[in-house]
Amino acid sequence: LRSHAWRASFNKRGWASGAKPFKKVMACNRGEIAVRIMRAANELGCETVAIYSREDRFTQHRYKADQAFLVENKSPVGAYLDIPQIIKIAKENKVEAIHPGYGFLSENPEFAQACKDNGITFCGPTPSNLKDFGDKTTARELALKVGVPCVPGTPGPVNTVEEARAFIDSGVGYPVILKAAHGGGGRGMRVVESAEVLEENFNRATSEAKAAFGNGAVFIERYVYKPRHIEVQILGDGTGNIVHLYDRDCSVQRRHQKVVETAPAMGLDPKTRQAMLNDAVRLTSHAKYLNAGTVEFLVDKEGRYYFIEVNPRIQVEHTVTEVVTGVDLVQSQFRIASGAKLSDLNLTQDNVSVRGVAMQCRVTTEDPSRDFKPDTGTIEVFRSTGGMGIRIDDGPGFQGAVITPFYDSLLMKVTAHAMTRRDCAAKLSRALRELRVRGVSLNKPFLLGVLDHPDFVDGTVDTSFIAENPQLLE
Ligand code: ADP
Asked: Which sequence ranges are marked TM in the entry (predicted)?
């Protein structure tokens, strides 16, 4: 009966009445997320355009598009960051909207602005949203302003080690975490255990941040002891209307990088969960947030929660939210970008509910027995997996595909859906065991170790789980 409500206001092509549907869209990315974007666009009746680098000329995302264009660039990564060429290709081919995916240009306000200036719709937040949330220190400032609890930390970047020392000695104490203000993907962070190692870590953090993110700004937070990482998915239509799509638990991390993600988070006090959902909505509503975003929190052993950042883009782990809510987030991004309001899309809070449990694992071409060194080469055998309740988001994987060293090593995402956590973990584990890839190493044994671990199945592991279980890394 609810499904009638969902369909009511869409036209035959699946767009909200009153919106301006796109005829042709570009996925400005590569790998599984480019394929994911083009699938969503295809279902909305759009023609799809891909871009690819020279190194990616034989990869899947190129062939999944109706049209694909080479971006000539000296650097393999640079091709996906080449704003002038990307805009030129889009204009020459009458692309109406660009979806940036995650990484690359997805959080770049200059790119969002360049799209706008060239009459192309950027399927993401406004340039001003990206400025507010792209810098973790301005995001913290906003959060504090609207009364969202943050980890005790410096109000802005610290410029010298003396400043850092003075701040820590004024009450926060050790351990602390130094974070690149513009960091992401678990990179640009250093935990400092004591005053003796502050200077060396501070200098390293600053130079690493400069090298990796083009901006050396570093700020300090208290290091929260063994927290859980809980995040809230939101959608906004730019008017201050926000709907949340509940939460995800991304506590299973290796070196601050997510490995297995679950929706919803288990074992959270209902009051704490509701407070986090409300805070995520209040913060993004205040910013008149447009499109999809994620508000990330840490929850400590006492059940207190702290805002850490907003990721103003679709995230790798968005699948688990889609599976438990039934809402297609990438299509929602296109629809919102086309001018639809949340109410036009029936995306009101009452219409969003969670059914069962979903878990996603990130299958990478990394060798756990060699410290997760990315592996490269030709895939000789590729036998995918499936079955009831299994969703595959694949990109580069097929027989004959060449895995190059130039990009992120994510090969595919496998997501399971079941009514209980135990069943979901068992389903995901079974699905992974069915997957066969020869020619490159996979992190599969590591993932299976996590999924079969009783503490993981129990549902309340914290971010130190993998570090405390070194046998998982063998
Ligand atoms: P990124 O933008 O690189 O993803 P985040 O700020 O989201 O960085 O942090 C990533 C992870 O690092 C968190 O999920 C958590 O495990 C750890 N972390 C970040 N800040 C803290 C903190 N103040 N205390 C303890 N752990 C932290």
From this structure: none
Question: Could you tell me how far CA 152 lies from the centroid of its own chain?
Answer: 25
Separation between Cα atoms, residue 181 and residue 179, nearest integer Å:
6
For residue 100, what are the CA distances in angstroms to 87, 95, 218, 394? 12, 13, 26, 17
DSSP state of 69: E
Pairwise CA distance, residues 52 & 31, whole Å: 10
Ligand 1 geometric centre to CA of 231 (Å): 12
275: phi then psi, degrees, rounded to nearest 5: -65, -40
**CA-closest candidate to residue 361, choices 423, 294, 292, 432:** 432
Element (H, E) at 7: helix 2-7
Residue 446's pLDDT is 97
Q: In Å, what is the CA distance from 225 to each residue of 221, 222, 304, 471?
A: 12, 9, 12, 22
Q: Is the CB of 322 under 6 A from ligand 1?
A: no
User: Is residue 4 classed as helix, strand or coil in its secondary structure?
Assistant: helix
Where do the DSSP E strands lie in 23-175? 24-27, 47-52, 67-70, 97-99, 121-122
Work out which ligand 1 atom sits closest to the CA atom of 188. 3
pLDDT at 1: 46
pLDDT beneath 70, residues of the chain: 1-9
Identify the active-site residue in 30, 248, 273, 313.
313
Residue 190: the pLDDT is 94
Q: Is 301 in the pocket of ligand 1 (CB under 6 A)?
A: no
pLDDT score of 317: 98
Is residue 221 annotated as involved in ligand binding? yes
Q: pLDDT tens, 140-180?
A: 999 999 999 999 999 999 999 999 999 999 999 999 999 99
7 has catalytic annotation: no
Q: Is 264 in the pocket of ligand 1 (CB under 6 A)?
A: no
Cα separation, 87 vs 241, in Å, equals 30
Amino acid at 65: A
Per the CB < 8 A criterion, the answer to whether 421 and 457 are in contact is yes
Q: Tell whether residue 341 is among the known ligand binding residues.
A: no
> What's the gap in Å between 251 CA and the centre of ligand 1?
10
* Protein residue with its CA nearest to atom 15 in ligand 1: 256
Residues 177 and 164: beta-carbon distance below 8 Å: no
The span from the CA of 67 to the CA of 44, in Å, is 17
CA distance 357 to 106: 28
